[in-house]
Amino acid sequence: MFFLNGYVVGSWAPQIPALVDRLGIDKFTLGLLILGFGLGALTLMPIAGILLARRQSRVVVVGFASVVVFSLLAVAASPHLALTAVVMFLFGGVVGGMDVAMNANAVTVERRLGRPIMSSSHGFWSLGGFAGGGLGGLAIEQI
Question: How far apart are the C-alpha atoms of 40 and 35, rounded to whole Å?
Fold first, then answer.
């Protein structure tokens, strides 16, 4: 799950120039859209905590993971600024919620294994970001 989360975030980064061109926005507006991503994360992270108190961490992680891929597609396809702002907020929220859930799940797995896995889990996030950024950039070049 860490790899997937990193991959999705990494895949979004190469799309930024296309998003700017598609929407015809300036740097300030792009900054506001990225701020919306962060605000979405801040909003949904506590909700992820509430869900984790009621459900197993694995279930919550899978739920967020199921939505995160589609939210990236929505960002890539969003044709209008107002819709893109909403989608960026939701994309950030789902990425942030998944982050909380997958870290909680890693703690559960650590306890079961009786050994630390958190640092290697975050290493997989970095590998996912590298793969997503690289492959996303290659895909954009081919389009």
Answer: 9
Closest by CA to 71, choosing from 141, 4, 2, is 4
Q: Say what the pTM is.
A: 0.92
Amino acid at 107: V
Identify residue 121 by its one-letter amino acid code: S
Q: Which of 102, 109, 90, 93 is CA-nearest to residue 128? A: 102
Write out pLDDT tens, residues 85-114. 999 999 999 999 999 999 999 999 999 999
Q: How many domains does the chain have?
A: 1
- Tokens at residue 114, please? 């009786």
- Residue 104, exposed/middle/buried by CB under 10 A (0-12, 13-18, 19+)? buried
Q: Which residues form the domain of 99?
A: 2-142
* 44's tokens: 């949904």
* Six token digits for residue 79: 């044709």
**DSSP H helical segments within 1-143, as ranges?**
2-12, 16-23, 27-54, 57-77, 81-113, 118-142
